[in-house]
Amino acid sequence: MAAYSSKFFKIGSCDGQKVVDGEVMPLVLEPADPERKDIESLVEALGNNKEWFDQMITKNSAVLLRGFDVENAVNFNDVVEACDWEDIRYVGPAPRTHIHKRIWTANEGPLSEFIYYHHEMVLIKEFPKKVILFCEIPPPEGGETPFVPSFKVTEKMLEEFPEEVEEIEKRGLMYSFSAPTRNTTASMRGRGWEDAFATSDKQEAERRASALGMEIEWLADGGAKTILRPRALTRVFEGRNGRRMWFNTVVGMHGKEQSSATMADGTELPLKFVKRCEEIIEEESIQFKWQKGDVAFFDNWALLHGRRPSLPPRKVLVATCK
Fold first, then answer.
1. Are 14 and 66 in contact (CB under 8 A)?
2. Which residues sit opposite 9 in a β-bridge?
3. With contact defined as beta carbons under 8 Å apart, do 157 and 311 qualify?
4. What is the residue range of the signal peptide feature (predicted)?
């Protein structure tokens, strides 16, 4: 494959880019011809270069389209559909609102909160291959969507905690998470179980949870405690150079008010293991400042991503694809 073979795009750059194992993250693609930055030309180019564009996302893990006239959810949906990837419905704790066709709001929790790094839907049996984000309103300060090459975390953790990594991998992980009955945007994890499972019937919710690999315990206040076990610490995916991804959400759920993370048999994880992992993830993070019209494509198999605290307004929309 010839690198950057599409004549429609030219290689750009952005603040915060890093080179990881010889690949630029994110790869910035801009219009090669300033006269052809309109949404129709972009959609046509993506449709004509689907295989090449897919390869760029796999190769670089993150691709940022910048400088095109992507103005709203309708335009963003056209971009997503041009790539011809199957949609996957979001399952998780984040409060979100459906906007248009395949497009949803990103996490609607308070902008003052940091959303911790995660692979999208990492705990569910079926998770997206790609997460696509569109910036409609860039925040005046903060609000970046930092991301982390997942294999780098595994490398560092194996260097510092080789025995612990293999022991946890062998025994597996267990997570629990408590959800209210109905949605609330007072928390970044405020999605209610009725919305998450698309039913208000508890028996039906239990059936749907089971299909996703979860158990449910009902709480006295009407909420639900979901339990997920066993889950892996790392995973290796086809086409990712044999890289061992840090495919878990230990740091994000360990010891939190609404959630927990332990070994699958309930044994507590070593605190120094969790704390050092948190430090390594931040050390390996990459981020850029959102600009209006940006569309970022993340390889969800290869990247963790999060959200920095932000001043309002900030409007970032999302689509998830198989």
1. yes
2. 31
3. no
4. none
Q: In what order do the strands lie in the sheet with 303-307?
A: 115-118, 303-307, 147-149
The amino acid at 43: V
Token duo for residue 59: 């190769």
Backbone angles phi, psi at 127, to 5 degrees: -125, 160
Q: Which pair of structure tokens corresponds to residue 61?
A: 């893990």
Peptide bond into 230 cis (omega under 30): yes
DSSP letter string over 205-231? HHHHHHHTT-EEEE-TTS-EEEEEEEE
Name the nearest CA neighbour of 214 among 286, 280, 125.
Answer: 125
| Tens digits of residue pLDDT in 268-281 | 999 999 999 999 99
Rounded to 5°, the CA angle 152-239-273 comes to 25
- Residue 97 contacts residue 42 (beta carbons within 8 Å): no
- Structure confidence by residue, pLDDT tens digits, 188-238: 788 999 998 999 999 999 999 999 889 999 999 999 999 999 999 999 999
